[in-house]
Amino acid sequence: MPLFGNIFSPKKTPPRKSASLSNLQSLDRSIRDVELGLNYGTPTMNLAGQSLKFEKGQWIAEAGISGGVEQREMQRLRRRNQQLEEENNLLRLKVDILLDMLSETTAECHLMEKELDELKSVSRRRK
Questions:
Q1: Cβ contacts of residue 54 below 8 Å, gap of 6+?
Q2: 30-67: buried (b, 16+ CB within 10 Å) or exposed (e) per residue?
Q3: Cα–chain-centroid distance for residue 38?
Q4: 3 state DSSP class of 55
Q5: 32 vs 18, 23, 36, 42, 94, CA distance in Å?
Q6: Which of 36, 46, 85, 122 has its CA 20 to 30 A from that of 100?
Q7: Which of 29, 30, 60 lies closest to 47, judged by CA?
Q8: What whole-number distance in Å separates Cα of residue 41 and Cα of residue 34?
C-alpha cells in the first residue's frame, strides 16, 4: 500500500446540492398554476395601429369601430380576387385552345407544302 494513497484512482466526490435560484418553489400551487399554467389565452399583437388575434390557426383583425369597414373591404377584395382568378383561368384555357388551333393549322400547312412540292416534282418529270 502506497504511502499517500493511489494517485490514479481518486475518491469520488459527492454530488453537489445546488440551491435553487428560482422563487417558484415558495409560491402556492394555485398561484403557480395561474402564473405558469396552460391557460395562456389567445395571442394578440398590434401592427400599424391594428390589433390582431390568433384564432383557429389564422390571424384575425379584432372587430373595433373601423373593424366592420375593414371586414367589408376584405370581403369585397376576396370576391374581386375570386373573379380575377376565374377570368385568368378562362384566358389560360383560351390561350391553350388557340395554341392547339395554331399547331393544327401549321401541321396542315406543312402537309400542303409537301404535297405541292411533290406535285411540282411530278409535273417537272413529265416535261
A1: 42, 43, 44, 60
A2: eeeeeeeeeeeeeeeeeeeeeeeeeeeeeeeeeeeeee
A3: 27
A4: strand
A5: 22, 11, 6, 20, 66
A6: 85
A7: 60
A8: 12
Q: At residue 39, what is the residue type? A: N
Q: CB count, 10 Å around CB of 124? A: 8
User: DSSP 3-state assignment of 12?
Assistant: coil
DSSP letters for 63-114: P-TTHHHHHHHHHHHHHHHHHHHHHHHHHHHHHHHHHHHHHHHHHHHHHHHH
pLDDT at position 9:
74
- Copy the grid coordinates of residue 26: 415558495
pLDDT in tens, 77-114: 999 999 999 999 999 999 999 999 999 999 999 999 99
Angle among Cα 19, 21, 27 to the nearest 5 degrees reads 105
pTM given for the model: 0.44
pLDDT tens, residue by residue, 40-72: 778 888 887 788 888 888 888 776 545 556 778
